[in-house]
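Show me a record, fold above all:
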Amino acid sequence: MNDPKPAAGTVTWFDLTVDNASELKAFYEQVVGWTNMPVDMGGYEDFCMNASDGQTIAGICNAKGPNSGIPPVWMMYINVDDIQATVDKCKANGGDVIGEPRSAGGGLCAILRDPSGAVFAVYQAA
């Protein structure tokens, strides 16, 4: 059975992109009790972070490869039905595209900046 596609406008994920994910994941393990699951990125590891019940709730990523240039903020991923239409609407309404649509997590994601400068991601499930 397939999981239903997430509703447009809902937040599906949070992650943090930093220069040294390995060091920062240890901070969150000590401070809030998360555990990690390494994700092989081909030459380095990013981390899925798990709550005490084992549920994966966030990611801590290195600012490398497709994540280079992403600012170190806890970024939310908002579900959308059509990623290209969303990117076009962002541009038309005074926002910027930091990262063009790319494959991620079985779907597509793009990194956007709103007119105030706040950065967020949009995600289109497959």
